[in-house]
Recover the amino acids of this structure.
């Protein structure tokens, strides 16, 4: 048996594809960000950090970045808290447990682009169910997706709706990892129920899981795109412009690839910073 | 765990409120897809259709755009992606978990680094690559970028680490080749992990919108998310009856699969979520 | 109890399976795992390779199997060099500590794997069904051989089951069956009994020894358990820290060890070691005397050494007295008759007598000094 030969056969396809579809493009995108490349243009030239300087003066980018950060800042804590609450409440008793779990998880599975369109209809100011219900209470109507003040929060709401179930199942997995003896010990020690037990046993045991869930939810929230692209196209007047949508528009609507690449690098830096938090947390929880 | 009667009622009260928010859009979607136009745009809202409009809505959804064709595309693309992911990544995962070779640590380190790259960040260079090689706007352009799954490699490697070395040695003594060991010994031992990864891959790629939006312009190649977005943006815009019918059609396959194998889906997403 | 049924086809006179290991050395990076092992194993011999965990004995077995490549040295079976031969081409079979049964295959399929690999081409294996009469004949002969081996080991009723449905002892038998079915020249066994409970281990010891007598093949058996080594083997090879210390019959190993290390490794409780100077025995400076607990006689007074009882261990059949003697670093252990030692209490003064005929003398480096 030729050891080296067989290892090569096993790993070569993955290594080649990794070079072509991951490492290569990563290097290329960083390199492109220092050029004025345009798709189909006959030549490109090195422009140094010009793209990055332009970015600092670009009002769209500033708004887009701010919106993305607001989106992350709202979606992450809300969906993590609701996910934790749902997990605790569902696991607290066996009645209808399976039903609740499935119901809360369904949005995670469902094609977001299709559900975004459903949300658009549900939120319609004239004949949407939400505004009808609000009208019955004497409020509204609200144009959730076209009102500059509301649109970003509406998208946050859809984002939260979609990620609560995901966070819920991750918390449930974390809860099953809490040894049952600890609950029994807490009961013997007189902290057998409700908030006290949560404070003494559940929360400390869930701590590392929570940090982990916060980070992956943040990374997912940073990648918000589908709902924006299909529902608002960043509008009205950039009120719902987010980073990935800006990148998409620069690259594939305006074909300013060098500039888009520079935006990608910024996007990537945010993701890597969040990942670094995760690595740090993992490293700390292992020691 | 036992809880008293009052907390029990409160639990249901809170969770049911949540359920309304979670399932509400799905219910409205299905009900609206069954209503005639006049009823959808009526000034007062009622959940159940008073008269039947389902036939017209579903017929419009299926004839205005080739929705079934889009579903078929979705099936072809997700199946091809998963099949190739298994073929490419399982042998690599086996080598990383069970073979000693020079550069193994470097390769695994690269896999870990690549795990951090969101695919949206590298979509642009891949688009340029495909554009200049003429691959763009083909089935291949939808499938190829995802054939490498560093996440799959990582997940399968972690699982393979738990397979006893003795089993592999026994297979060698029995005369199995390395490929035979991968497909005849390791893969069958890793069925739970493969199912989890398969569900993760299926959900991710059936629902993916960003990359197909970039890679495909030809309606022939539209995947379900592209198809429904196309119906909305280029159709009558507010023809909500057919739109809800189309949304129902696009969502149904996954939801049915989920309801049939609920536990598997939740486990799969949890497993892949926690490991990733 | 005889569990293995007598088999008329068993080879009575072994003429094949002689293994010659010459100067085998193995390095993993900077660590030397095996250091120049020379070992000649006769055809049909049952040899045990004994050593503590991490001594390199498993690595030696894996080199013989072809699972590991030696850094230097040679392995030959019946005079044929094994270098570069794949494990399945070496005419060996191996039984693993964790049994290594394929979890997705039934017992019958597990046993059939080596035969299928040998007899069928990849395409024929893939198809699974016999398309041609020739392939059908191969399938039939494989089924027959699996059946025969299963009958011999009394696992016929387990054939349709999956490994997960078997007990530890049953898995062990299936692993043995999978090894036997290929009728190898050499059986390699890597701690095959250590995952079994104590009672089953005693039982399987007898069964494997019986199997060896019937098959007449060479058995190379690796273990850290000296009881297994002493009870089953024709000869025992002791490896400590990657070096072959001694190869001898179990009896010779116990009575007549070549080195202090072997004397200390073999025998429970441990052999007693004390400076030769205390006993006025002749030897170079720094010499040490070792004596087995059963050769150390205890009396209330007199004897060549005086001490106090520090601890007593009554096993029912034997009483071990741990005696503290001034000038000896470790407690000396003496075996006594429980009835005779009944009155002796902790703290009592005791005298010890050493029979010089059974005292083993070693030099300062631990090498045996024979008279």
């Amino acid at each position: 048996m030729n050891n080296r030969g067989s290892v090569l056969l096993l790993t070569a396809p993955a290594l080649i594809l990794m070079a072509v579809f991951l490492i290569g493009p990563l290097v290329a995108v960083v390199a492109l960000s220092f050029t004025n490349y345009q798709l189909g243009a006959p030549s490109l030239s090195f422009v140094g950090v010009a793209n990055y300087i332009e970015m600092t003066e670009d009002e769209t980018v500033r708004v887009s970045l701010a919106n993305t950060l607001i989106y992350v800042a709202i979606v992450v804590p809300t969906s993590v808290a609701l996910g934790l609450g749902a997990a605790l409440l569902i696991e607290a008793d066996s009645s209808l447990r399976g039903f609740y779990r499935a119901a809360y998880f369904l949005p995670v599975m469902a094609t977001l682009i299709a559900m975004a369109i459903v949300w658009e209809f549900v939120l319609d100011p004239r004949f949407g169910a939400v505004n009808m219900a609000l009208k019955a209470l004497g409020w509204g109507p609200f144009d959730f997706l076209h009102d500059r003040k509301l649109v970003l929060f509406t998208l946050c709401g859809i984002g939260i709706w979609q990620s609560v179930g995901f966070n819920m199942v991750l918390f449930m997995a974390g809860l099953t990892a809490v040894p049952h003896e600890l609950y029994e010990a807490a009961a013997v020690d007189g902290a057998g129920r409700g908030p006290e037990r949560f404070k003494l046993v559940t929360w400390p045991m869930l701590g590392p899981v929570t940090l982990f869930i916060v980070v992956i939810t943040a990374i997912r929230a940073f990648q918000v795109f589908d709902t924006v692209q299909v529902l608002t196209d960043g509008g009205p007047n950039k009120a719902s412009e987010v980073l990935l949508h800006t990148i998409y528009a620069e690259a594939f609507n305006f074909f300013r690839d060098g500039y888009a690449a520079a935006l990608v690098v910024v996007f990537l830096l945010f993701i890597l910073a969040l990942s670094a938090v995760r690595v740090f947390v993992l490293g700390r929880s292992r020691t | 765990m036992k809880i008293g009667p009052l907390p029990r009622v409160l639990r249901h009260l809170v969770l049911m409120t949540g359920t309304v928010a979670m399932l509400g859009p799905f219910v409205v979607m299905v009900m609206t897809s069954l209503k005639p136009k006049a009823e959808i745009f009526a000034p007062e809202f009622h959940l159940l259709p008073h008269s039947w409009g389902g036939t017209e809505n579903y017929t419009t959804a299926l004839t205005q755009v080739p929705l079934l064709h889009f579903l078929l595309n979705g099936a072809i693309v997700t199946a091809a992606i998963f099949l190739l992911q298994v073929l490419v990544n399982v042998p690599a995962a086996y080598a990383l978990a069970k073979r000693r070779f020079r550069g193994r640590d470097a390769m695994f380190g690269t896999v870990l680094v690549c795990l951090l790259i969101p695919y949206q960040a590298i979509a642009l260079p891949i688009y340029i690559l495909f554009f200049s090689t003429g691959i763009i706007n083909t089935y291949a352009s939808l499938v190829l970028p995802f054939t490498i799954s560093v996440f799959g490699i990582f997940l399968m490697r972690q699982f393979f680490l738990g397979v006893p070395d003795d089993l592999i040695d026994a297979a060698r003594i029995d005369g199995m080749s390395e490929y035979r060991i991968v497909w005849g010994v390791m893969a069958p031992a890793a069925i739970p992990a493969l199912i989890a990864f398969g569900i993760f891959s299926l959900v991710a790629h059936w629902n993916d919108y960003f990359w197909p939006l970039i890679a495909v312009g030809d309606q022939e190649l539209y995947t379900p998310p592209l198809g429904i977005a196309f119906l909305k943006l280029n159709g009558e815009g507010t023809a909500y009856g057919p739109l809800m019918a189309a949304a129902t059609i696009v969502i149904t396959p996954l939801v049915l699969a989920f309801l049939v194998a609920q536990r598997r889906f939740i486990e799969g997403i949890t497993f892949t979520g926690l490991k990733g | 109890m005889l569990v293995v049924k007598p088999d008329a086809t068993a080879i009575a006179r072994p003429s094949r399976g002689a293994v010659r290991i010459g100067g085998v050395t193995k390095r993993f990076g900077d660590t030397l795992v095996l250091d120049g092992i020379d070992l000649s194993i006769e055809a049909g011999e049952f040899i045990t390779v004994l050593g503590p965990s991490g001594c390199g004995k498993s690595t030696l077995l894996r080199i013989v199997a072809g699972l590991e490549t030696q850094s230097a040295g040679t392995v030959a079976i019946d005079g044929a060099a094994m270098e570069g031969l794949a494990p399945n081409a070496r005419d060996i079979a191996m039984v693993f500590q964790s049994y290594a049964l394929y979890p997705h295959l039934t017992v019958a399929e597990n046993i059939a794997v080596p035969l299928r690999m040998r007899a069928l081409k990849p395409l024929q294996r893939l198809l699974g069904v016999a398309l041609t009469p020739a392939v059908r004949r191969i399938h039939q002969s494989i089924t027959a051989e699996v059946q025969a081996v299963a009958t011999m080991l009394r696992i016929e009723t387990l054939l349709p089951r999956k490994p997960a449905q078997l007990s530890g002892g049953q898995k062990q038998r299936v692993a043995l069956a999978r090894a036997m079915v290929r009728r190898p020249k050499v059986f390699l066994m890597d701690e095959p009994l250590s995952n079994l409970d104590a009672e089953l281990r005693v039982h399987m010891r007898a069964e494997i020894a019986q199997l060896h007598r019937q098959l007449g093949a060479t058995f190379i058996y690796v273990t850290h358990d000296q009881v297994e080594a002493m009870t089953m083997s024709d000869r025992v090879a002791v490896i400590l820290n990657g070096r072959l210390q001694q190869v001898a019959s179990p009896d010779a190993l116990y009575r007549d060890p070549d080195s202090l290390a072997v004397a200390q490794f073999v025998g429970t409780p441990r052999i007693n070691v004390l400076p030769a100077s205390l006993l006025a025995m002749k030897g170079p400076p720094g010499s040490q005397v070792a004596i087995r607990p059963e050769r150390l006689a205890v009396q209330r007074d007199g004897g060549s050494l005086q001490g106090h009882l520090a601890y007593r261990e009554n096993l029912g059949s034997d009483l071990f007295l741990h005696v503290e003697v001034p000038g000896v670093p470790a407690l000396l252990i003496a075996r006594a008759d429980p009835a005779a030692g009944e009155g002796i209490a902790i703290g009592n003064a005791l005298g010890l007598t050493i029979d010089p005929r059974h005292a083993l003398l070693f030099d300062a480096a631990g090498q045996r000094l024979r008279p």
Remarks:
- The interface with chain A takes residues 86 of chain C (CB under 8 Å).
- The radius of gyration of chain C is 25 Å.
- Residues 48 and 202 of chain C are 16 Å apart (CA to CA).
- The first strand of chain C starts at residue 19 and ends at 28.
